[in-house]
Known about the structure:
Blueprint: H1 35-45, H2 54-68, H3 72-78, H4 80-95, E1 104-105, E2 116-117, H5 119-131, H6 137-161, H7 165-179, H8 186-198, H9 202-216, H10 223-242, H11 246-266, H12 271-284, H13 287-299, H14 306-318, H15 322-335, H16 340-352, H17 356-369, H18 374-407, H19 413-449, E3 453-463, E4 466-475, E5 481-490, E6 496-507, E7 512-520, E8 526-529
Antiparallel strand pairs: 1-2, 3-4, 4-7, 5-6, 5-8
Helix pairs in contact: 1-2, 1-4, 2-4, 4-5, 4-6, 5-6, 6-7, 6-8, 7-8, 8-9, 9-10, 10-11, 10-12, 11-12, 12-13, 12-14, 13-15, 14-15, 15-16, 16-17, 16-18, 17-18, 18-19
Amino acid sequence: MNWKRLSLTLAVTAAALPARLLGQAACNVDLGKPGQVKDANSALAKAALFAGKPEQITAAVKEAFTKMSKEEAKVIAANPAGRALVLGNAFVELASLPNGTAPVSRTSLGLTGDGNIDPVAAADSMYDIVDAAGPNCKDQTEEGRRKIYAAFINDAVNQYNAQQVDSALALARRGIAIYDGYKLAYIAYNIQGNALQSKDDLNGAVASFMRMTDLMKGDTALVEDRKNTISNITQVMLAHAENLEGDAKKAKIAEAMAHLQKVLEEFPGDAKAEGAMARAQIMSGDEGAAARVFGAMAASPEKYSEGQLMDAAVNAARAEKTKEAAALFEAGLKKNPYSRDGLFNAALTIQKMEQWNASEGHIRKLIEVDPENPEAYQVMALNYQGAAKVSKHLVDSLRKVALDAANDKKTTTAQKNTIAARVKAELDPAEATFKQLNDSLLKYFNRYQNSKAKVAFNLWSHDGTKHVLGGTVENISDAAADWTMKFDFLDATGKVVASKETSVAGLASKSSKAFRVEVEGEGVVAFKYAPFSGTPW
């Protein structure tokens, strides 16, 4: 069973780091001597005057290289940090040009030696010299490093959202190489962790997310994001454990529980961590402790948010605690009745309990929310299949009663007639119900089989009153298509707070296209969209 979870937003900012605190020692890099450093720095300053003019910027950089190359050994001996800072800044200017991060011929830049030079690696190498020159010198190189880093990470985000995972991973790693150790490097580790997780490198993903949380620590604006990342680390660990056997599995569960213990020490009473700990306890054999955690949450849902209840429900479901999971999903849906993931997961859980009537309501609302998701129709078909089996059993049982009575030599004709009449009174509606269920099964299965579109979501973020929804539309039909997506954004009561349309035009057969919509509104917690015109139903 796959538990559907929307991914977190991959976003990047290139904002400057906080200014140095009073009392901290400054990094004193002299850019005024010797003359080569001063002249090269002056030449490089011209680049700032040529924004948007690559040829002039390149010329200013080459001039700086030329001036710095005079009596190079003496310059290195006299002022290694000053020389390195100017050259590092020069390589940053080159790397910031279109296609500037690719290796370039040394001779084309007026540099000595043969072959190519990588501007990013060269900038990093020069800045490393500056960083080692004294306390707080990393502050001196942060701006230049960030300029390259931001470009890599913005490209990595775009590649990841376009499902080009290998490209995103390569770009994130280049960003880490130039910017590791600074707080904003957590974004690159986020991309790297997600990419490695998608490639089933779970140990690598955990290491990336761990590094991410280290870099985020202490930033009050990132507390919730950091807690979400910590929770994801645990889920990855436990998912990894589920695929292991014997001592390796025990070791991975123990590692996850040790991690969770540290989390609960830092965030006492955190519902996500408690739910994950309960799941780990079940996996380790301590089902009693886990049952108490899930039971306490289900008994007092008012103490928890929708997200906390849904996370706990997912943990309970993964731990095969179906009854507890169903109760937690239902509690979460009372707080947000239009939660797409909540509806899907609740339906799957209740189906597992073979409560077909109860799950049908959730699936109908899921189809209202997400009408171009073929899986929703598949789940409804499976629901009718389950209900039809129950109905078939009743029909077969009634027929057997009639047949047994008819063949029983000890039963009088009057008794047989009475039994036949009673069975018929029950059998006729039972057969009609069975036929209706089979007809509905075929209807939804055909809708699933004949789907022309498949909508998937990979972004659902909130920033105050601003809400961003993103994903992809896949054309799974045999013909090109033009579709309009009409979204309604809802509050917890289902009231429409905002609406937005976006076009997905010129979508070739068997291809997909990304979409992204942004709205403003108070209290938005869910969304739904209208069925596409021309899709079968």
